[in-house]
Design goal:
Homodimer. The protein is of the alpha/beta class. It has helices spanning 4-17, 21-33, 39-57, 80-96, 143-146, 168-182, 200-210, 222-235, 308-318, 332-336, 355-362, 407-414, 427-436, 448-452, 493-505, and strands at residues 67-75, 123-129, 133-141, 150-153, 156-158, 162-164, 190-196, 251-258, 267-273, 278-285, 291-295, 323-328, 343-352, 374-376, 381-384, 390-394, 418-421, 439-442, 455-462, 472-486. The chain folds into three domains: 1-142 and 278-320, no CATH class; 143-275, no CATH class; 322-498, Alpha-Beta Barrel (fumarase). The protein has 15 helices and 20 strands. The relative contact order is 0.16. The structure holds (2S)-2-hydroxybutanedioic acid and iron/sulfur cluster (SF4). Iron/sulfur cluster binds next to helix 5.
């Protein structure tokens, strides 16, 4: 098995940096369907550009390289202990090479292990089979979309949809609701895997297993096939759109599996995967561990590069969008001029801060003067160059709503004028933006290569003890574009889309499957 570690390493690198063809096809179709020039179409344009950049740079598509989860099938007699060791070594190596972000954190102390190894990480499931080859599949599912997974216990009452009973129609309602509740926070347009039945644990496992089916796979169970078709068609009528900005493309794939349950339990579990649907597989020689075949890589690679017509359509609309260039630090006056829908181009400094920093700043001083500064909700992938200087390898936004309890207070306490993140924030922050004179800017979730390209220099880092993703990085940027989605006049695009999508959800209240 001398090739095993290397083969697994290749699988990890390829999964993190190169989206499979079925996913590429789904994203391409969504982009073609979206009306050229709308906010949704522009966002999808950034996403496709990012996918191609990651492929070219051999760098992570998204900075959150997720919870590495391996599904391994082995012939009888293959040493699983040795395989596990090779997987661990390959994971540590890929982390060192900045193909994975160090993502394994002690749950009690918050300490990052630094190499993605630790209690429970990575996840590896082995199964024996009768074939004489090894089949290894890997999914890298990020934390933001993982947080949007949801489990229902039927019967239940659902917002907008009323009672969901213990039947196919109740299941239909749960799945429609799962898409609504995710809004844009899991980096829509997304893909969902659904598990019906089982106990709470196996139901979720079944949902995740569905994510290993290809997007164009047709369910052999006719009833489930109809359900998949129904949800795919109708969830896209909710108008949530890419990143929750509104639009046609909300859901790109849905796969449903069912297993037996206990008479007393009836679970429906939904695993939500962002557009950065990173899963690949390899077939390995059982003696050498060498790669014999790649899975999910049918035919020629689907090209996502922007066409000339798309460039022209974008340019036309960009003329209509108000674009404001901000040189950070910024003043209250500049911020109060911004309105929802404006595109802001940032030059100058921004400072990363996410969960640990926000918690810390509540009762500590800031490591630097944050007056007039911009905070970026981002946990980047970083590496040191030959001269021992930090460089940014991937740096997209993280889900901002986690900072909702702190954000308003922190902006006021330190004089911060703008925060950049994704998925939007709630009423507490919106109120603070109005009182204090602040703005919330939405960047395109997952577009980690696209934003890393705007970062010209890493000026320094504070609180590195929190680990690479949670430290405060001081970044000098040029041409960093984001959209105003919450302004200082009480407007929130997120609140609007939530409200209108809930109204649309209610249109699916009547029974469909009897
Ligand atoms: O942890 C991150 O960088 C992002 C996370 O996947 C998120 O979607 O919020
Ligand atoms: S930031 Fe978005 S694209 Fe990246 S892992 Fe999180 S949900 Fe997925």
């Amino acid at each position: 098995m001398e090739k095993l570690q290397d083969s697994i390493y290749q699988l990890i690198v390829e999964t993190s940096t190169n989206l499979p063809n079925d996913v590429r096809r789904a994203i391409k179709a969504a982009k073609e369907k979206e009306n050229a020039g709308t906010r949704a179409a522009l966002s999808l344009g950034t996403i496709t550009e990012n996918i191609e950049m990651a492929d070219e740079n051999i760098s992570p598509i998204c900075q959150d390289t997720g919870m590495p989860t391996f599904e391994v099938k082995v012939p009888v007699g293959v040493n699983q202990i040795k395989m596990k060791k090779a997987i661990h070594e390959a994971i540590a190596r890929a982390t060192k090479d900045a193909k994975l972000r160090p993502n394994s954190v002690d749950s009690l102390t918050g300490k990052n292990t630094g190499d993605n190894l630790g209690e429970g990480t990575p996840v590896i499931h082995f199964e024996q089979w009768e074939k004489d080859v090894i089949d290894v599949r890997l999914i890298l599912k990020g934390g933001g979309c993982e947080n949007k997974n949801i489990q229902y216990s039927l019967p239940t009452e659902l917002e907008g949809l009323g009672r969901a009973g213990r039947d196919l129609d109740g299941i239909r309602k749960c799945i429609m609701h799962s898409v609504y509740q995710a809004q844009g926070q899991g980096c829509s347009a997304g893909f969902i895997g659904v598990g019906i039945g089982g106990d709470r644990t196996t139901s979720y496992s079944l949902a995740k297993e569905q994510l290993f089916r290809t997007v164009d796979d047709v369910n052999p169970n006719l009833e489930l096939q109809k359900l998949e078709d129904y949800v795919l068609e109708n969830a896209n009528k909710l108008g949530i759109g890419t990143m929750g900005f509104g639009g046609e493309a909300t859901l790109l794939g849905v796969k449903v599996g069912a297993m037996n349950r206990l008479p007393a339990s009836f679970f429906v579990s939904v695993a939500y995967n962002c557009w950065a649907y990173r899963r690949l597989g390899v077939v390995l020689d059982q003696e050498t561990g060498e790669i014999q075949e790649w899975l999910y890589k049918d035919g020629e690679k689907v090209d996502l590069n922007t066409t000339n017509e798309e460039v022209a359509a974008t340019a036309e609309v960009q003329d209509e969008v108000r674009e404001v260039v901000l040189q950070a630090p910024v003043t209250e006056e500049q911020i109060r001029e911004l309105k929802v829908g404006d595109v802001v181009i940032i030059n100058g400094m921004m400072h990363t801060g996410r969960d640990a920093i926000h918690h810390h700043l509540m009762d500590h001083d800031a490591p630097i003067d944050l007056n007039g500064q911009i905070i970026y909700h981002c946990g980047p992938v970083m590496a040191k160059d030959a001269d021992d200087n930090w460089t940014v390898k991937a740096a997209g936004p993280t889900t901002s709503i986690r900072e909702e309890p702190y954000q308003g207070d922190i902006m006021k306490k330190f004089g911060i004028r703008a925060v950049i993140g994704k998925g939007g924030m709630g009423p507490k922050t919106l109120k603070a933006l109005e009182e204090h004179g602040g703005v919330y800017l939405n960047a395109i979730g997952g577009a980690a290569q696209y934003y890393a390209d705007c970062i010209k220099e890493v000026k320094g880092v504070d609180l590195i003890d929190f680990g690479i993703p949670e430290a405060m990085w001081h970044l000098e940027v040029e041409g960093f574009a984001a959209i105003v989605t919450m302004d200082s006049h009480g407007n929130s695009l997120h609140a609007d889309v939530d409200k209108s999508s809930l109204e649309k959800l209610a249109q699916f209240k009547e029974p469909v499957f009897k």
